[in-house]
Design brief:
The protein is built from 15 helices and 14 strands. By secondary structure, the chain is α/β, with parallel strands linked by helices.
């Protein structure tokens, strides 16, 4: 699909990229994809569509150098040169940075990932809303938020595939925590996405990996010396960060973070798999004691054509069966605990899919594609009452 948008805001090459960013915001796109020698694409409600005209490699490099912070400008030039020469194993072809721009009178933020693919320069740009959305807008029910603000320590994991809204959910959670109590918050992000506002009784310091701090693990290590109540870690990717997050949770802090998995029990295995096998029992024991909640989420295409995507989620909460299952690293038992934990507030993915189906927000085929037990979904959908047909007389 192609969209005709006027993306030119001036005569320079940089204006073309600025125009593409503005067009993305106006189209309510979640992402902008620009690849050398290709037409740009935007993703709107989960669907890709082309926009603007072909951008060549040299023009794209010039655009990016104009928009990126000075700290990564030389890296883009070096990356371009070394990629063309196909030499150098000691550098990364992937660069991350954030960018702010005033569009239609409002400040707008963007998260850039710059990369090379088969010699072509590319950039994937995440469009970040100027303000943290409300829980209602995101589709997060009140009981999920109520659970969160009741935690004073421990580990909260938000899981899902790329583009499932994990960062937005973390930002909403943080804003809700700030509203409830005077809170000292440290965030460690790569890059900083939402810029959080806070009142007189709260204090938030946001640190960007590669700019303010060397790594997630370093941010956690030194953050523990900065009197935090809540620590937000953009993502757990490695053993060192996972260990520091557990240590922070164990020492009385509330740690909010994300991992990339498709369901709640997968978050447990993903976390433990970051450690050597010989440490498995130790890590499972720590995780069993310190885990408070896992929220696994999916953003699904809604039933209304061109409408906003629908949030479907699964929520695991710590109770005795969950603690026992994590301690023994029994994924099957963790899944069973979610199914039987409704009285403790747990929610299965299939339950939220059924709720959306009954509300008319999802189509059945979408729900069945994502369901844990499609047969169960089909069996619980009320079949429409058939209207009796008027019997037609036989021709004689």
């Amino acid at each position: 699909m192609s969209v005709d948008l006027d993306t030119s805001t001036g005569s320079s090459e940089t204006a073309d990229l600025r125009g593409l960013l503005a067009a993305s915001v106006r189209a309510k796109a979640s992402d902008l994809h620009v690849l050398g020698n290709e037409r740009p694409r935007i993703r709107v409600h989960g669907k890709l569509m082309t926009v603007g005209s072909v951008v060549d490699n040299e023009a794209l490099a010039a655009m990016l150098r104009e928009l990126c912070p000075a700290s990564v400008r030389d890296s883009i030039a070096a990356t371009a040169r070394q990629a063309e020469e196909r030499v150098g194993d000691s550098f990364s072809h992937d660069l991350d940075f954030s960018h702010e721009a005033v569009i239609d009178g409002a400040m707008q933020r963007f998260r850039f990932n710059v990369f090379y693919a088969h010699g072509a320069l590319g950039a994937c740009v995440r469009v970040i809303p100027g303000e943290v959305p409300s829980a209602k807008w995101a589709g997060l029910p009140e009981h999920v938020i109520d659970r969160l603000v009741g935690f004073r320590n421990g580990l909260v994991l938000v899981t899902g595939i790329t583009g499932s809204g994990k960062s937005t959910t973390l930002a909403i959670m943080l804003q809700q925590l700030i509203k409830q109590a005077s809170t000292r918050v440290i965030t460690i992000e790569e890059p900083i996405e939402y810029v959080h506002s806070f009142g007189d009784n709260a204090l938030i310091t946001q640190r960007e990996v590669g700019v303010d701090v060397a790594s997630y693990a370093a941010g956690l290590k030194y953050g523990l010396r900065q009197d935090p109540d809540v620590i937000l870690v953009g993502e757990i990717r490695d053993q060192e960060t996972a260990q520091m997050a557990l240590t922070a949770a164990e020492t009385g802090h509330l740690v909010l973070t994300t991992v990339h998995t498709r369901d709640a029990k997968g978050a447990i295995s993903r976390f433990t798999d970051l450690f050597p096998r010989e440490r498995s029992d130790e890590i499972c024991a720590q995780l069993a004691v310190n885990l408070r909640m896992v929220l696994s989420q999916h953003l699904l295409p809604g039933s209304r054509q061109g409408g906003k995507r629908v949030l479907a989620y699964e929520m695991l909460l710590s109770n005795l069966p969950v603690i026992s299952a994590i301690r023994s690293n029994n994924l099957v038992a963790i899944g069973d605990a979610i199914l039987t934990g409704k009285n403790d507030g747990m929610v299965t993915l299939d339950e939220t899919l059924l709720d959306h189906l009954n509300a008319g927000a999802l189509d059945l085929d979408v729900a069945l594609d994502y369901a844990t037990d499609p047969k169960r979904i089909s069996a619980r959908i009320a079949k429409p009452t058939e209207t009796p047909r008027t019997r037609q007389p036989a021709w004689t």
